[in-house]
Design a protein that fits this description.
- The structure is a homodimer of 345-residue chains.
- Chain A is of the alpha/beta class.
- In chain A, the strands form four sheets. In chain A, strands 5, 6, 7, 8, 9, 16 and 17 form a seven-stranded mixed sheet that branches. A six-stranded parallel sheet of chain A has the order 12-11-10-13-14-15, sandwiched between helices.
- In chain A, helix 2 packs across helix 3 and helix 2 crosses helix 8.
- The longest helix of chain A is centred in the last third of the chain and has 22 residues.
- Chain A is globular, with a radius of gyration of 21 Å.
- Chains A and B meet through helix 7 and strand 15 of A and helix 7 and strand 15 of B.
Chain lengths: 345, 345
């Protein structure tokens, strides 16, 4: 077989504000690959099926000297993130041809030779779930919600939780875990469609933070025992103001500041008098503790419809830059997934 | 016996900045009391021996509609706080003449009729400790350090802790608990005398934050696994910057903002990527869990010198206003105690 195109999405420049498609990232079609002859050197060759686009991408778009909890993207190299692919060839017994692999280090390109599994894993799909679910509620975002909630919420029936970005991959799962635990759920998002979706998955009080004052909602519906924070900034200050004594704050994201600079927090000192507990949440350190439990429970509940989810699927690797921008601006409709190739192709 | 003077310290006006003696508080000698005939109505009469002056007083100097974790002082009424007194008369079996009582609701006046014990308790003194120690390391400040450290530090030998206000009643106890647990202790305070005291009780790195840059110290001696925060503001931001992964922040005070307004916190968002755990600490909710343990251990260790402490004793109820100001400005030399009357008088 002759070499074929191996299109990629490259990190091109560090953005000042929002990431601009074609400037921050470039869709590049100059590379080719011969699927039959490309050397594997003991590794395996994967065809990328779909990629997840997540809020944390913005943090990886930084100059290489800035440290953070994730490695940054490298200028001139493909982006990487969670994704699903199918194995075309393998020289390792750990991975068989036809296996599906999933994990956080999928490159944003059509075909990739992996020297080893590393953080990727071979994954089995539930018969009644699409692969895309493994990039959302059955994957990293769902796991983030699950492990954070289990580890730190200390939730009790009758308590009140406030969930931000409640229509996103993480927030939607938090809403449903909270309802299952018997809590009253206040949830916010940035469009009327997202409000409707949050209501459909059980939020007791769902509101559009762009048209409704968060402080007014919390004053009326709070105080809040648990705050699931995906946004930071003024919303976080409002949560401190209307937090109950002994409240738990699960700090998962701060997207209000990712593109425009982090806002300083004015109400931090209220932590003392209210005896609040604030926990930073990354999924990977907590995942081993809850891994078996998560996969034993969540995919089946998603397949049966007991847990609901929404996703916005975009076709084409060339659309990654647009999807990244939409996720940062919140103009995406639901958890963002980019389909790179159909399985049958 | 004829009526005698019952001097008081009254809350007179809400301060805008630092509390001004004679304006924020007034020393008042207009009241008298007849110790033999004052009606007890089933309560008991106490002669005030000594009073504690603490940083949290500033938070109680607010207009009455502002809510907080402690009741505010009332304009025209005596201040209240931790103190020790001796019982002169009693009409309740719970309190005997000659008992000493201790607790958070001692009025700042020479004699007080208590209708009931309430939050006060009858207390036994260790033979080799003065009563003043029960307002410092053997009382509320020591208990705050003890319960906070036990509940939330999750300390492991070899870790690094940063303690602010390390020469104060709380901070000095934290330094010694941390050394006992095998940690490296970085400690800050606002004078060279306080630095020497912190060194004498075991701090490995003690510095004067007024003359040494906190960030530079933490960059060199950190990262810090535990931060004991008595000050808030820019110091807290520095602690976030140089916190280790999985660090614990014990939020006990925020005195940098009590008199000049709370500073907004710029580095809060670092909580997420470092998976930090931040806990607000009040002593009273945690005290029942550690009460027996505290009194079984700490007074004896203080009496033997195994745990050291410093105090600055000021004589005279009329000096309370000055001492309050010194504590807020940090110009006091050590844990502040005001002696109102000698026992033998």
């Amino acid at each position: 077989m002759a070499p074929i195109q191996n299109a990629r999405v490259l990190f091109n420049s560090v953005p000042k504000g929002y990431p601009i498609p074609g400037e921050t990232t470039l869709y590049d079609t100059t590379q080719t690959i011969d699927l039959d002859t490309v050397p594997l050197n003991g590794g395996f060759l994967v065809k990328t099926l779909m990629l997840s686009v997540d809020p944390y991408f913005r943090g990886k778009m930084r100059s290489s000297e800035k440290k953070s909890y994730t490695a940054g993207f490298e200028i001139g190299s493909p982006l990487d993130g969670f994704g699903v692919g199918v194995v075309l060839r393998s020289e390792t017994h750990k991975v068989q041809v036809g296996n599906y692999i999933y994990g956080p280090t999928m490159l944003h390109q059509e075909y990739t030779v992996f020297p080893e599994l590393g953080l990727m894993q071979v994954i089995e799909k539930h018969a009644n779930l699409p692969w895309s679910a493994y990039l959302g509620p059955a994957g990293m975002p769902g796991q983030t919600a699950y492990v954070g909630w289990r580890e730190y919420s200390n939730a009790k029936a009758g308590e009140v939780v406030f969930v931000t970005s409640g229509a996103g991959g993480v927030g939607a799962m938090v809403i449903q875990l909270a309802k299952q635990a018997g809590l009253k759920v206040i949830a916010s998002a940035g469009s009327e469609d997202k409000v409707k979706f949050m209501q459909s998955i059980g939020a007791d009080v769902a509101f559009n933070y762009k048209t409704t004052d968060t402080r007014a909602v919390l004053e009326k519906e709070g105080p809040i025992d648990i705050f699931w924070d995906n946004v930071g900034g003024a919303t976080l200050d409002a949560a401190f103001e209307f937090a109950a004594f002994n409240g738990r704050f699960l700090e998962c994201g701060s997207i209000s500041g990712y593109n425009t600079g982090e806002e300083a927090i004015k109400n931090f000192h209220l932590i003392i008098g209210k005896c609040l507990h604030v926990h930073g949440i990354l999924v990977l350190p907590l995942l081993p503790k809850y891994y078996a439990d998560f996969y034993a429970n969540i995919p089946a509940k998603l397949a049966s419809g007991e847990i609901k989810y929404a996703e916005e699927i975009t076709k084409g690797l060339d659309k990654v830059g647009d999807v990244i921008l939409a996720v940062q601006k919140g103009t995406n409709k639901a958890k963002a997934v980019v389909v790179v190739a159909e399985e049958a192709e």
